[in-house]
From TrEMBL:
Pfam families: Sbt_1. Keywords: Membrane, Transmembrane, Transmembrane helix. The chain crosses the membrane at residues 6-27, 67-88, 95-116, 128-149, 170-189, 204-221, 233-257, 263-281, 293-316. This is Sodium-dependent bicarbonate transport family permease. InterPro entries: Sbt_1. The keyword Cell membrane does not apply. It comes from Trichocoleus desertorum GB2-A4. The keyword Membrane applies.
Length: 323
C-alpha cells in the first residue's frame, strides 16, 4: 500500500486535531470542552451531511443505481451483526456478543465524514446519495441485535422486551431523526435550498468537524483504560472485523458497479461501528451487556484505526479491484 495515502489522511486538519485531543489526555492537560458544545456540533454535522445528501439525491434522482445501493446497505446492516455475533460467541456470553455485534452492524457518521474529506482531498468524486445509505444503515443492527438476544439467551421465555420502545429508539432517536429529516428537506428544496444554506452547511463544515474530532480525541483517549477489561480477543476483533467488513463491502460494491468514490464510502460504512445510537439502545434494552466492552472497542480501537489506517487501506483495495 502507498504510504503516502496514510500520510495524506493523517496530515488532514480534522485527523490531526483528533490526535491533539488524545495527546491532551496522555500528558494530563486540563483541556476540556463543555459537554453542550460537542452535542451541538454533532447535531450540526448530522444536519449538514443529511441536507447535502438530500440535495445531491434530488440532483441524481431515484434511479436503479440509487435503489440498488440502498438495498445492499440494508442487507449489510442486517448481515454484519449476525456473523459477528457468532464470532464473538466464541469468547463472550450472548448478551455481550449481541450488543457488540449490533454496534459493529451499525455505522459511525464521523468516520463517514472523515472518509468524505479524504476523497475530496484526493479529488475523487462520490455521489451525495451515499448519505442516504448512511441513514439506512444506522438502525437495522439494533433490531437484529435484540432478536439475537431473544434467540440465544437462557431466559428468552421470561424476557419481556418493550418492542415499541426498542423500535422508537432504533428509528426515532435524535441522531437518526435529524439525519433523515435533513435528508428529506434537502431532497425537497434541492438546489434552491442549497444556495440559501450553503454559507452555513458548507463554509463552516470543516471547522466544526475539526473541533468535533478534537473532542473525540479527548473521549477516545479516556476510554483507552477500559481496554484493559476487554483483553486481546476484543482488541483483535476491533481491528480485524472492520477489515473483513470493508472487504465484503468492496466486493459487493464491485459486483453492483459502484464508482470508486462511492465504493470507499460504502466500505467505510460497513467497517465502522456505532458509539452513539446503538450504545444508547443497548443500555436501554440489554442491561446485562457491559457498556465498557462495546463502547471502548468501537470508540477507542475501531474508530482511530479506521480514520488513520482503515480509510487508506480500503482505498488501496479499490485501486487493486477497480483496475
Amino acid at each position: 500500500m502507498d504510504v503516502s495515502l496514510i500520510m495524506s489522511n493523517i496530515l488532514n486538519p480534522p485527523v490531526l486535531f483528533f490526535f491533539l485531543g488524545m495527546t491532551a489526555v496522555f500528558v494530563k492537560s486540563d483541556l476540556e470542552i463543555p459537554p453542550p458544545i460537542p452535542k451541538l456540533f454533532s447535531l450540526y454535522l448530522l444536519f449538514a451531511i443529511g441536507f447535502k445528501g438530500g440535495v445531491e439525491l434530488a440532483k441524481s434522482g431515484l434511479n436503479q443505481e440509487v435503489f440498488l445501493t440502498m438495498l445492499v446497505a440494508i442487507v449489510m446492516a442486517c448481515l454484519v451483526p449476525i456473523y459477528t455475533f457468532f464470532i464473538l460467541k466464541i469468547k463472550l456470553d450472548a448478551y455481550n456478543a449481541a450488543a457488540i455485534a449490533a454496534t459493529y452492524g451499525s455505522i459511525s457518521a464521523v468516520t463517514f465524514i472523515t472518509a468524505s474529506s479524504f476523497l475530496q482531498q484526493l479529488s475523487i468524486d462520490f455521489d451525495g446519495y451515499m448519505v442516504a445509505a448512511l441513514a439506512l444503515m444506522e438502525s437495522p443492527a439494533i433490531i437484529v441485535g435484540l432478536i439475537l438476544v431473544n434467540l440465544f439467551t437462557q431466559d428468552q421465555t421470561e424476557r419481556d422486551f418493550s418492542w415499541p420502545e426498542v423500535l422508537r429508539e432504533a428509528f426515532l432517536n435524535g441522531s437518526v431523526f435529524l439525519l433523515v429529516g435533513s435528508l428529506i428537506i434537502g431532497f425537497l428544496t434541492g438546489e434552491h435550498g442549497w444556495k440559501v444554506l450553503s454559507p452555513f452547511t458548507q463554509d463552516m463544515f470543516y471547522g466544526v468537524l475539526t473541533f468535533f474530532l478534537l473532542d473525540m480525541g479527548l473521549v477516545a483517549a479516556k476510554r483507552i483504560k477500559d481496554l484493559e477489561k476487554t483483553g486481546p480477543f476484543l482488541i483483535s476483533f476491533a481491528i480485524l472485523i472492520p477489515i473483513l467488513n470493508a472487504g465484503i463491502g468492496l466486493l459487493i460494491a464491485k459486483l453492483i458497479g459502484m464508482p470508486p468514490g462511492n465504493a470507499l464510502l460504502f466500505s467505510v460504512l460497513c467497517a465502522s461501528a456505532s458509539y452513539i445510537a446503538v450504545p444508547a439502545a443497548m443500555r436501554l434494552t440489554v442491561p446485562e451487556a457491559n457498556p465498557s466492552l462495546y463502547i471502548s472497542t468501537a470508540l477507542a480501537v475501531t474508530f482511530p484505526f479506521n480514520i488513520i489506517f482503515g480509510i487508506p487501506l480500503y482505498l488501496y483495495g479499490i485501486d487493486l479491484l477497480w483496475r
